[in-house]
Amino acid sequence: MIIGSKEHYEILELFEKQFSEYRLDKEERGLWTKGIVYQCGETNALYTAFIAGYSAGRCAYLNQ
Questions:
Q1: What DSSP element (H or E) covers 16?
Q2: The whole model's pTM is what?
Q3: Domain coordinates in residue numbering, the chain
Q4: Contact 1, 11 (CB under 8 A)
C-alpha cells in the first residue's frame, strides 16, 4: 500500500469508522511516511496494528 493512494484513504476511512471513539486528529502528511498519522499516540498505535492486520490479510489473500 502506498501512502496517499486511494487504497490508503479507504483504509483510513474504515479505521476511523471502527475507532470513532478515539481522538482522530491527524498529523501533517509529511509525517505519515514515518508511521505517524494521528496526533494521539494511543490512536496511532491502534492504527499501526490495524495496518499490520490489513497487510497480513492482504498477503494471505494474494498468496492463495
A1: helix 6-18
A2: 0.86
A3: 6-62
A4: yes
